[in-house]
Design a protein that fits this description.
Largest sheet: 7 strands, mixed
Catalytic activity: (1S,2R)-1-C-(indol-3-yl)glycerol 3-phosphate + L-serine = D-glyceraldehyde 3-phosphate + L-tryptophan + H2O
Number of strands: 15
Number of domains: 2
Number of helices: 18
Shape: globular
CATH architecture of the largest domain: 3-Layer(aba) Sandwich
Low-confidence stretches: none
Pathway: Amino-acid biosynthesis; L-tryptophan biosynthesis; L-tryptophan from chorismate: step 5/5
EC number: 4.2.1.20
Radius of gyration: 20 Å
Cofactor: pyridoxal 5'-phosphate
Mean pLDDT: 93
Strand order of the largest sheet: 1-4-5-15-10-11-14
Structural class: alpha/beta
Function: The beta subunit is responsible for the synthesis of L-tryptophan from indole and L-serine.
Length: 430
């Protein structure tokens, strides 16, 4: 079977909250002596997502209004089998990929954007602010705000703002306001620009700007596209659907691979399966693929750190390269983040998830091969997961093992063609 689908009636009605089943307690976010970041959270986020952020309830209802929009944007998404790639690799492994790229904005990000916009409007917001790296999250929130009648302001990492002009066009089509970060709009942005007018930006800086903007506007809330518990909660529709799809063909994944920047698409796919692993009902290896240029899981330190550069967030226990770390200007802008979702970080620390690094030329080689064999052009971020999946399939070829490998196909690369062109022309660095 090449494509395993679900009916609209099979769209999940509840999100899965892994906080209920963790092997050890999640270290809490903490206040700092210098500020009152935790006290500020109700000013920055709607009360509804803050309740989800702190919840240890295993299952949380998805509002009917959110499920209605999920169906409108094409959920449930299909699970495909990559038979062309399998044939090329001559591997006994079966490779599956969950098609989050088929959403209107081309990525998984809408799953939480819709939920966060819904809860913000319910709490009385008129505008949402956010950051974006490659532009997928900014596009998703712009569309969600457009569908739900909210204004949207997006601080886009400067290097991606220049590398990916058509992401800006998508956001503008959805009536989103897009600013290069660091920007002159905020005090923190002006401070960074005064030190370096050509600063490439980072997700940490863009987060600081979006938070400052929301904090100074009583009609606005801040939203985050990854990292936080409630964001990964909303993304579990990916894994919950995939569980049903594997059940339809009487199979289970032996290896689950996803790319990680902040951890949302990986966590969303992995957590429902991790529940089965923790209960002893599934024997599965979980692999988190990250850029060699931003090796948070493989070289970062597991400690408390800020989620942004200015230090406006509470301190979170996570793997981090330091909140002032500025990654190289690689094309996988969505993965250029110094930290990691605390939930994903805890599972790595407990030995339940393994980090793998991929360099820039390797990921584009994998993306080109996938395009040649499957016809789908992956986002540079997604290519990290594809490269690791190819490595695992090649191991199966050597051992003769017939493993099922699942890739979280987080987004398409049709707006990332400059990166592919640079690769084809031989202009990319490692």
């Amino acid at each position: 079977m090449y494509k395993i689908t679900l009916s609209e009636k099979e769209t999940p009605k509840k999100w899965y909250n892994i906080a209920a089943d963790l092997p050890v307690e999640l270290p809490p976010s903490t206040q700092t002596e210098e500020g009152h970041q935790i006290d500020n959270l109700p000013k920055l986020f709607s009360k509804y997502v803050l309740q989800q952020e702190m919840s240890t309830e295993r299952w949380i209802d998805i509002p009917k209004e959110v499920r209605k929009v999920y169906k409108q944007i094409g959920r449930p998404s299909a699970l495909f089998r990559a038979t062309g790639l399998e044939k090329y690799l001559d591997t006994p492994a079966k490779i599956y990929y969950k098609r989050e790229d088929q959403s209107p904005v081309g990525s998984h990000k809408l799953n939480t954007a819709i939920a966060q916009a819904y809860y913000a409007k319910k709490a009385g917001a008129e505008r949402l602010t956010t950051e974006t790296g490659a532009g997928q999250w900014g596009s998703a929130l712009s569309l969600a705000c457009s569908l739900l009648g909210l204004d949207c302001t997006v601080y886009m990492v400067n290097v991606s703002f220049k590398q990916k002009p058509y992401r800006k066009t998508v956001m503008h089509l959805y009536d989103g306001e897009v600013l290069p970060s660091p920007s002159n709009r905020t005090e923190f942005g002006r401070k960074i620009l005064a030190e370096d007018p050509n600063h490439p930006g980072s997700l940490g800086i863009a987060i600081s700007e979006a938070m400052e903007d929301a904090f100074n506007d009583d009609s606005a809330f801040y939203t985050l596209g990854s990292v936080l518990n409630h964001v990964l909660l909303h993304q579990t529709v990916i894994g919950l659907e995939a569980q049903k799809q594997f059940a339809k063909i009487d199979e289970k994944p032996d290896i689950l691979v996803g790319c990680v920047g902040g951890g949302s698409n990986f966590g969303g796919a992995a957590f429902p399966f991790m529940k089965d692993k923790l209960s002893g009902d599934l024997d599965c290896q979980f692999l988190a693929a990250e850029p060699a240029s931003c090796p948070t899981l493989t070289q970062g330190e597991y400690k408390y750190d800020y989620g942004d550069t200015a230090g406006l967030t509470p301190l979170m226990k996570m793997y981090t390269l330091g909140h002032e770390f500025v990654p190289p200007s690689v094309h996988a802008g969505g993965l250029r983040y110094h930290g990691m979702a605390p939930l994903v970080a805890l599972l790595v620390n407990q030995g339940l998830v393994e980090g793998r690094t991929v360099n820039q030329t390797e990921l584009f080689q994998a993306g080109k091969l996938f395009a040649n064999t499957e016809g789908v052009i992956p986002a540079p971020e997604t290519c990290h997961a594809i490269k690791v999946a190819i490595d695992e399939a090649n191991k199966c070829k050597k051992t003769g093992e017939e493993k099922n490998i699942m890739i979280t196909f987080s987004g398409h690369g049709l707006l990332d063609l400059q990166g592919y062109d640079d690769f084809i022309e031989g202009h990319l660095t490692q």
